[in-house]
Amino acid sequence: MSNTRHLLSALALSLSMALSVAPAQAALPLSVNGQDMPSLAPVVEQVTPAVVNILVSGKKVTRQEIPEQFRFFFGPDMPDAQVQEQPFQALGSGVIIDAAKGYVITNHHVIDGADEIKVTLKDGRELKAKKIGEDQQSDIAVLQIKADNLTEIKLANSEQLRVGDFAIAIGNPFGLGQTVTSGIISALGRSGLNIENIENFIQTDAAINSGNSGGALVNLNGELIGINTAILGPNGGNIGIGFAIPSNMVRDLSEQILKYGEVRRGVLGIMGGELTSDLAKAFGTDKQQGAFVNQVMANSAADVAGIKPGDIIVKLNGKAVRSFGELRANIATMGAGKTVTLGVIRDGKEQDVQVTLKQADLSETKASVLHPALEGATLGNSEPGASVTGVVITQLEQRSAAAQAGLQKGDVIIGVNRTRINNLQELRTAMKNRGEIQALNIRRGNATLYLVLR
User: Fold this and answer.
1) Total structural domains in the chain?
2) Residue 6 falls in the annotated catalytic set
3) Is 66 helix (H, G, I), strand (E, B) or coil?
4) Inside any domain, residue 95
5) Cα–Cα distance measured from residue 38 to residue 28, given in angstroms and rounded to the nearest whole number
6) Which one of 338, 359, 380 terminates a domain?
7) What is the pLDDT of residues 106-161, one digit of tens each?
8) H-assigned helices in 192-307
9) Residues in binding site
10) Which of 14, 213, 254, 400 is catalytic?
11) What CATH code is carried by the domain that includes residue 133?
12) Reduced to 3 states, what is the DSSP secondary structure of residue 256?
């Protein structure tokens, strides 16, 4: 038996030139029952002006820790790590969803770490893009460009998709320029692939390759049904297994980013897994798909709504739930504060439960995502009941940018530019539209001081 290994290489499909690709070609049949099938050209001509090529550039910073024994030779002033900067460029794709305001959707991994983002339209115009916001867990980012005569693409309702529907993929594979491929919807609700943190993918056999990330997956009506994100295949080449983020997830996430500058993730507050045949039999139901609830967190949205351990969630807003991963992804992208209806099986009987989602707790984060001058610091919310509420410097690397700025471990950030800060969420909001200078109000022991970040 040959040991042929199909690498589950979840491509962060920014351009990494893999030349050995096995093309998977899928096309409409020439005729059905003796009647010619229509050409895809009218649909392609309609939507391709809304799909853009993206070129990003920046510098990747790497830190290599220096062994402690070297201090014996070089003294205490020796740095803890050797820092190197390496320039990089990457290619991807994007989709214009609002022509009037110039909003473009792409993948987070396409623009991650970029200092400069350039967008090329189908008509050849090159524009600089501004990053509005991003969400790493779902791999979505929103950009903005300023130009006249833009074309937008309408978002379809991805819940109406069926396996077997035709699909068209449009993007910038290998930097060749705008390319169109066709196929079908191979599967829905794909999760557990460890490609992203939140997964509810559309699977398609339309050819997707490196550089297609952030491009459009559209239906035969010319509507966006997904954002192409990743593929599975040996050596990073296409073998007809590609994945796209559903348009409904894209809509929910982009609306939150445009409104708040970030995703305010909703949570149920449960732990669980897939409904197996053994569990279904044990709990007296003939359902074969759903999400089994193992645990309900105290004071969570699910707890307040009356969800109990042992419940089986089989519907979300009237639509069947196929897996726990699908439920988690849909809930996480709906946004905090939304009310959903869960179809729950308890004691063999199905009932509807109304749940108002709570916001995910941002307990800790790397400070560098907020400001480059905070590199090397880790931030966390102050403990409940603490004498001073704010954002605590929980960890600090010696000789890091944050340390050089004057921060110390245990400092509590209580304000930004005279705006009071109580938690990480408020700190993110205050620093979202930062100018060239940010003044952090710090509580250090019994003293209060300001540190200026440039």
Assistant:
1) 4
2) no
3) coil
4) yes
5) 9
6) 359
7) 999 999 888 899 999 999 999 999 998 888 889 999 999 999 999 999 999 999 99
8) 247-260, 277-282, 301-305
9) 109, 139, 211-213, 268-272
10) 213
11) 2.40.10.10
12) helix
b/e map 434-454, b = 16+ CB within 10 Å: eeeebebbbbeeeeeeebebe
Q: Which two tokens stand for residue 286?
A: 């003939």
If DSSP codes are grouped into helix, strand and coil, which group holds residue 429?
Answer: helix
CB atoms within 10 A of CB 277: 8
Residue 203: both structure tokens together: 């699977």
CA atoms within 13 A on the CB side of 136: 4
Structural contact between residues 374 and 435, judged by C-beta atoms closer than 8 angstroms: no
- Token readout for 434 is 């930062």
Burial grade of 257 (CB within 10 A; 0-12, 13-18, 19 or more): buried
Residue 139 designated active-site: yes
E strand or H helix that includes residue 218: strand 216-218
- Nearest-angstrom CA–CA distance, 18 and 235: 7
Q: Note the pLDDT tens digit of each residue in 162-218.
A: 999 999 999 999 888 999 999 999 999 888 777 767 888 999 999 998 889 999 999
Last residue within a domain, chosen from 333, 359, 385? 359
The chain-wide mean pLDDT, for the chain, equals 84
Using DSSP's 3-state secondary structure scheme, residue 268 falls into coil
User: What are the distances in angstroms from CA 394 to CA 184, 370, 382, 412?
Assistant: 49, 15, 9, 9
Between CA 190 and CA 326 the distance in angstroms is 8
Kindly give, in sequence order, each residue whose CB lies less than 8 Å from that of residue 192, ignoring residues fewer than 6 positions away: 199, 323, 325
The active-site residue out of 109, 135, 205, 252 is: 109
Closest CA to 269 of 363, 358, 187: 358
Instruction: Give the domain CATH number at 389.
Output: 2.30.42.10
Per the CB < 8 A criterion, the answer to whether 430 and 452 are in contact is no
Note the pTM of the prediction, 2 decimals. 0.73
Q: Could you give the CA distance from residue 365 to residue 224 in angstroms, rounded to a whole number?
A: 33
Residue 26 lies in a domain: no
Binding site for substrate, residues? 109, 139, 211-213, 268-272
| Domain region containing 52 | 46-144
Largest CA distance in the chain: 85
